[in-house]
Amino acid sequence: MHLTQALLGILALSFAAALPQEPVETETTLLPSESSTVQSQTSQASIPPETFSTSTLPPSETNTLAPSTTSEAISEPTTGGETLRCSGRTARKEVRQMKQDGDWDAFIGAYMSLVSDGTLASYVNQHVQSWGFAHFNAHFLPYHRIFLKKFEEDLQSRGARYLPYWDSSADSQDLLNSQILTAEFFGKLASDGTIQDGPFSRGNYSTPVDGLPLTRGYKEGDTLYAFPLIQNAINNPSFSGMSEDIEYGQHAVVHSIIGGASGSMSVQTSPNDPLFFLHHCYVDYIFYKWQLQNPGSPFEADNYNLGRMTPNEIIAPWNVPVRNAWTVDQACVGYEDPDPNVVKVAGNGTIRPPSNATAWLNNAGANKTVAKTVAKKATENVKKVKED
Ligand SMILES: [Cu+2]
Fold first, then answer.
1. What spacing in Å lies between the alpha carbon of 267 and ligand 1's midpoint?
2. Which intervals of the chain are annotated as region Disordered (predicted)?
């Protein structure tokens, strides 16, 4: 027993060492959406009920994806743990559509309220503490799905309708002129790397954990993943193949390009930048599209880097087992595709190879061989897509 206490002490110390600026938070502060006060504020009345259309969540999907997702190879029990709250869920839309629908102001209001009461800082710290569990292995997509779901519940408890996503593929060929990077949304970049206008500008917003101005580093000529390259990843029937392609590819490029060499998005504390949440929401949309295209795909414990992923592993600090993040139905998420009349694709169908994801991959400690393979594949796919 004394040994256990000593080990716990060492664990606590190593967390503290990893995060010297912030003491380890108690579970209560890390779980704002679960506390009784917040829960009672989350009334159905404050969130207009909107259910999914059958086209967004086909009923067959539940049947084919749900219980069958545990293969015989994994003989663990498949019940228990937190079931995610589905009441009040709303199909997530692209942020430009959110604005057109008139839901943007409520979203920003809710977001800023989570910044000022310290909730957002707890998510940033949480992301750092779960770094090894949540990146460069099969947990990547399930972990971030739950991270976003919990964050969305907190936003909803403060009046937002849902967490929107940023379809970065639409801006992939002309990032500098993206409407997303203007005062209307997430701000224009100043020459010193800070944000010059909009709600997240220097002076209006500082990073939740260290109180510094937000910094970004994209520049002329930078490209992100065009949708045909993402579709290529979705077409991979293997979960780990798709997950690796997305994490090292589309996901890493957005972090590296938006953050530049050392900006807010290029480091482990990347949830400091609000674009983190919208970017990861699009990554989750890609995971969702893959699930719709691969109904009945078994829970895949296979892994592309470390260890195995098992259905009953808990996604900390929430009591959510990995299996509850596996299907869109169990995880209670759903998406509306971007409306091409609102989310205009820049570049008239041009597809250039995505820029290098070096910044984020290096800072994150990614496997360099895998990174090179994924980058090479993306370049080859550009050629293939152009020929088709
Ligand atoms: Cu992450």
1. 10
2. 26-85
